[in-house]
Batch of 2 targets.
Target 1
Amino acid sequence: MQMRVLPKDFVQRHREIYYLISTPEYERSGAIGRDVTRTFSIFERSHQHQLAAQQSALFRVLNAIAEAEDGYCQGMNFIAALFLVEGLSEADAYALFLYMLKKRHLAGIYHRSSTFLDEYLHHFDLMFIRDLPKLRAHLLTQGFAIPIDSGSSSSENSSADGDEESVFVGGFGLHRTLPPEIAEAVRSGNGSLVRHLWEAHVIRRHHSATAGVVLANEILHFAIWYGRVSIACLAIDRCNADVDNKDDTGLTPLHFSVVRNQPDMVRLLLARGARMQGTSMRKLSPLELAHRWKRRDTTAARLVLEKEEVCLSVPKTI
């Protein structure tokens, strides 16, 4: 299976993110671990040692997908397993699956707004109860959800009301791209730990420049979200984060500094050479976004952009 048809930047970024988020324990890891043990039975029989390796690989791919998309359902097992059986590496299987969810609207098939699917599954369950009640009861005792629980899918959970940390308004949300220990280190402002974890990851990735930059870009994003200017300096100056990096929706660090109303971040990014006229997929520059954003006051960030003020001294890099 070839990956050449997918956007190069998307694949390159998410291959590296896979190595960051595929192994930690998350809320849904237990359910995933239960489900992967019965997935490969639908394919040709493998030797026991091959089966164990396949299940471990499938767990990591699904673990990463569930964390990135903040959702999981049993139907994801077959898709991810098929990619692995067809010869994709774990990182490529993750990147392809994520691309289908984000860019090809695969996530929408399990959304609660898919009324036709809900109705179809309801009728299927009624037929199962009528015609195969014992088999249905047995499957339920084994943990199978019948019908598929659309509420546990990825697209719905990312639109929950009232939680600003998880709301994605057209892509304007906190990325789900860092393992818990790095995310917490950034949130708490522990620069020395962030630097140590970044260096350790680069070593694990055999000193890959791409791995270092991808992680640095995500650290910068989290630093902007939590208003940690010193961590942002670290990400840029020590870890080589790209101040004009565009995420999957075309948004740059300046865009996120605006929606978080972080004037010091705007000053820092401008001091480090960020482009004022960089546009997102919505054709809005950071300044235009500051004028149009209605979900939060952006006055402080907007004033800095309008005056193009750059502070004379920025925090020292850790």
Note: Residues 148-168 have pLDDT under 50 and may be disordered.
Target 2
Amino acid sequence: MTEVLESKTKAMAEKELEEIRVRKRTLEAVLQQCQRALELLKVVDDPANPGGAMEEEEEEDGEEEGSSHFTDSETAE
């Protein structure tokens, strides 16, 4: 009788633990989505960047291209 009770209790504990793992994974996924959304909102709402994310990406591309046009001898002058 005690063995049956122990096995049922163990099975219930394992099932509950698996449910907790699933909830944790779900909450972590939701948290990541919220963090991404907040980052996007920060970029869009940035008063120093009225063009939003597109303008920021274009500037980054421009900086990379601009820096590659100079050789070491040209930058030394």
Note: Confidence is low (pLDDT under 50) at residues 64-77.
